[in-house]
Amino acid sequence: MTETIRVVIVDDQELVRAGLRPLAERDGDISVIAEAADGRSGLSHVRELRPDVVLMDIRMPVMDGIEATRAIVDDGALDGVRVLVLTTFDEDENVFAAIRAGAAGYLLKDVSPDDLRAAIRTVAAGDALLSPSVTAAVMRVVAEGHSPDPDGHGLDELTEREVEVLSGIGRGLTNDEIAAELFLSPATARTYVSRLLTRLDARDRAALIVLAYETGLVRPGGASRG
User: Fold this and answer.
1) Residue 70 backbone dihedrals phi, psi, to 5 degrees
2) Helix axes 205-214, 92-101, angle to 10 degrees
3) Is the dihedral of CA 203, 208, 210, 212 positive or negative?
4) For residue range 9-49, what is the model confidence (pLDDT) as tens digits?
5) Any transmembrane segments, and where (predicted)?
C-alpha cells in the first residue's frame, strides 16, 4: 500500500487554501494535514508535524515564503521536508530566490489540478520540479548575472559519467529517465545523483539544476554543452 503524502499549505489567502485542499486530496494519496496564513505560522506547523511537502506562497505577511523556505531547508531536523513554491508571481528574481533558498519546485497557480498533484508526488519522491516558464526564468537570470564557468564549480573534478548525469538533471530529467538515457539501473542513477550532491556541495536537486545552467553545461532549450 502506498504511503499517503502529508502536505502543509502556507498561503495568506483563505480562499486559495480552501481551493487547494480538495484539489490536492482528490486521488486519495495526498493528505493536507495543516494550513497557515503566513510563513512564521507555517514554519511552526512544519516543525511540529514534519510533513512530506509544503505548498508555499511567496508574498505573505509576518514572514514571506522565501524566508520560511530558507528556515525549513536550513533546519537539520527537517531534512525530509520538501518545499514546493506555488505562487501567482513569476518575476525572475522571485524564482531564483526561491530556488536559492532551497525550494524543490516552483509552480505558478495557474497550474492544472492534475499537474499540481503530479508536482507534489514528484517533490515528495525527491526529484526537483520546475515548470517550463520557471526554467526559462532561471536561464534568464543566469545569462544576465553569471558568466558560464565550467571549472569554477568543481565540474573539472567530475568523471565523464557524473557530468552526463548532471546534464540530465539540468535538463529536468528524473532519475528513471537519466537511467534509461544512460543505460544505467535506477539504483545506479540515484547513487550518481547522491554523489553529485556531495561532491558539488549542493543543497538539493534544484541547486544542481541551477549549477548546470550557471556552468554552461546545459544551455537554453535544454541542449547540453558538447
Assistant:
1) -60, -40
2) 130
3) positive
4) 999 999 989 999 999 999 989 999 999 999 999 999 999 99
5) none
Beta bridge partners of 84: 55, 105
User: What is the grid cell recorded at 23?
Assistant: 484539489
| Confidence category of residue 208, pLDDT binned at 50, 70, 90 | confident
DSSP string for residues in 45-78 = HHHHH--SEEEE-SS-SSS-HHHHHHHHHH-GGG
CA 71 to chain centre: 15
* Distance linking the first and last C-alpha atoms of the chain: 44
Whole-model pTM: value is 0.71
CA–CA separation, 208 and 9 (whole Å):
26
How far apart are the C-alpha atoms of 8 and 71, rounded to whole Å?
A: 15
Q: In terms of residues, how long is the chain? A: 226
Q: What is the tens place of the pLDDT at every residue in 104-133?
A: 888 888 888 898 898 899 888 877 776 655
The cell for 25 is 486530496
Per-residue cell: 40: 512564521
CA 98 from chain centre, in angstroms, equals: 9
Contact 63, 92 (CB under 8 A): no
Residue 157 identity (one-letter amino acid): E
Type of residue at 144: E
Question: Which three cell numbers mark 103?
Answer: 525550494
- Cβ-based neighbours of 126, under 8 Å, separated by 6 or more: 82, 205
H/E segment holding residue 163:
helix 160-170
What integer pLDDT is reported at residue 2 of this predicted model?
A: 62
